């Protein structure tokens, strides 16, 4: 492996690790557990998982990897707060969407070469990218991995007897 | 910049972004706020910040960057749960240690060249590293960035009126 490949493979491994930890947490939570707020008055785990699914789904167009799978999730989990619209979805539908989006996204990630990770993402213009080369797809991968960790840390609080 | 430099610079930028978000959250929390549990029966923000400080401090020897600054933090924030020993420290001491450790660590990170990020870290043997080249220092950087995001997501719950 070249240095570039080692660096991007390491980051991809980190993404997969974070997603699989949330997968495990989800498996250990019943559909009723998903209704629990992570702290009084805060988002339910149900909403956080929907929110992460919507944000990850948006990576398909943002990174030029194809069409997104669930454009309707934005209204439920991004444009509106918890309890406004989220509940049109069942827990089963949410769990399936989470797995499907991350599965297809990870498969698409695995095909990208290091030089492709360093291309601009679609929310930055050519001009701006010329000035700020760190606004690349790799930055988006790291940012979304951390975003998943951020809400994963909250979601785990709904698990009885586990804070850490 | 070479591809390798762009990749490691992007990751370092991500680390700095995560740390500075926690810095901002800390500034907005009073010493009394730090005593708040992130969810009923869970860790206080005080403990989470101490825990992150201890884990980051351990990166100095783990990554071959020098001696750690606060070896005593392990007993307070790693070997024991919240409320056992943590309170020998004042909020002011905790805030100073958090800033000092991350400041010195980030300065040391900035000096590392891409090829140095790809060296093994000190918790993996030469033999094991030969088989698993992804167990490098770069993996530790990404892992600790995500760990900080994970607990940062919890700590923010102690902030009134902000869940996200």
Question: In a few lines, what is going on in this structure?
Answer:
The structure is a homodimer of 164-residue chains. By secondary structure, the first copy, chain A, is mainly alpha-helical. Chain A has 8 helices and no strands.
List keywords for this structure.
164 residues; 8 helices; homodimer; globular; Four Helix Bundle (Hemerythrin (Met), subunit A); 60% helix; mainly alpha
Write the topology of this structure:
Two copies of one chain form a homodimer.
Chain A lengths: L2 H26 L16 H13 L1 H4 L10 H5 L13 H21 L2 H4 L8 H6 L5 H19 L9
Account of the protein in words:
The structure is a homodimer of 164-residue chains. Chain A has helices at 3-28, 45-57, 59-62, 73-77, 91-111, 114-117, 126-131, 137-155. Chain A starts with a helix and ends in a 9-residue tail after the last helix. Chain A has eight helices and no strands. By secondary structure, the first copy, chain A, is mostly helical. Chain A is globular and about 45 Å long. The mean pLDDT of chain A is 96. Chain A has one domain: dinb family like domain (Four Helix Bundle (Hemerythrin (Met), subunit A)), CATH 1.20.120.450. At the A-B interface, helix 1, helix 6 and helix 8 of A face helix 1, helix 6 and helix 8 of B.
Query: Architecture of chain A in CATH?
Result: Up-down Bundle
Which two chains share the most extensive interface? A-B, 42 and 42 residues
Secondary-structure element sequence of chain A?
Answer: HHHHHHHH
Number of helices of chain A: 8
For the record, the CATH class of chain A is Mainly Alpha
N- to C-terminal distance of chain A: 35 Å
Total beta strand runs of chain A: 0
What's the Cα radius of gyration of chain A?
Answer: 17 Å
Assembly type of the chains comes to: homodimer
Largest β-sheet summary of chain A: none
Percentage of residues in DSSP E strands of chain A: under 5%
Shape of chain A: globular
CATH superfamily of chain A: dinb family like domain
């Amino acid at each position: 492996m070249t240095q570039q490949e080692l660096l991007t493979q390491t980051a991809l491994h980190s993404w997969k690790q974070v997603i699989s930890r949330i997968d495990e947490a989800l498996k250990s939570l019943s559909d009723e557990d998903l209704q629990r707020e992570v702290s009084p008055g805060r988002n339910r785990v149900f909403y956080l998982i929907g929110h992460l699914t919507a944000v990850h789904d948006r990576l398909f167009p943002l990174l030029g990897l194809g069409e997104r799978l669930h454009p309707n999730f934005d209204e439920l989990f991004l444009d509106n707060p918890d309890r406004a619209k989220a509940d049109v979805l069942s827990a089963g539908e949410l769990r399936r969407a989470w797995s499907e989006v991350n599965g297809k996204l990870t498969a698409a990630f695995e095909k990208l070469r290091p030089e492709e990770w360093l291309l601009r993402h679609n929310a930055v213009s050519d001009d701006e990218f010329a000035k700020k080369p760190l606004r690349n797809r790799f930055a988006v991968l790291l940012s979304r991995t951390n975003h998943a960790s951020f809400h994963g840390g909250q979601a785990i609080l709904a698990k009885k007897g586990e804070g850490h």
